């Protein structure tokens, strides 16, 4: 019985530790946006105390080169960023999909990293409807010239 209690206590301790660690890794969602089917971009406003006046703010996701955005001109604590779908990637928009993109600013000069992540943006990209292919009209049956019907009845 003591072994069972010890095992349950150890499992509970590990589970508690794991959930608190994953809670610390959550990134703050700074904005949400939707790119409509008839659009290739959307503008979002990012607010963070870490944003400095006229410092570049970049939105991207590693290994997702066709959806990204950046802005260089903005005010202290707030940036307007245009997120764009690259034109040659419209084929990717076969269904509605939501992506979580990183929001970054230049890292401090003392850092070895190039960028510092300050949060995320949730972007929904709406599918682009493919134009309907016209269905060909059914072929008209071949017609032959009408011939007068022979009257077989004699009067």
Automatic annotation (TrEMBL):
Stretches the record annotates as Disordered: 132-155
Keyword annotations of the record: Signal
Residue ranges with Low complexity bias: 140-155
Keyword Signal annotated: yes
Coiled coil spans: none
Signal peptide as annotated in the record: 1-23
InterPro entries recorded: Lipoprotein_mollicutes-type_CS
Protein's name in the database: Lipoprotein
């Amino acid at each position: 019985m003591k072994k069972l209690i010890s095992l349950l206590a150890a499992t509970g301790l590990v589970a508690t530790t794991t959930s608190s660690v994953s809670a610390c890794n959550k990134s703050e969602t700074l904005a949400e946006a939707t790119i409509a089917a008839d659009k290739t971009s959307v503008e979002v406003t990012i607010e963070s105390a870490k944003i400095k006046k006229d410092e570049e703010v970049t939105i991207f996701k590693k290994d997702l080169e066709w959806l990204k955005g950046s802005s260089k001109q903005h005010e202290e604590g707030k940036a307007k960023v245009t997120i764009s779908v690259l034109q040659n990637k419209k084929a990717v928009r076969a269904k509605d999909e939501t992506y979580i993109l990183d929001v970054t600013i230049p890292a401090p000069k003392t850092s070895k990293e190039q960028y510092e992540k300050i949060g995320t943006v949730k972007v929904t990209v709406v599918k682009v409807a493919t134009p309907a292919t016209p269905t060909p009209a059914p072929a008209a049956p071949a017609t032959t010239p009408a011939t007068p019907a022979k009257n077989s009845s004699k009067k």
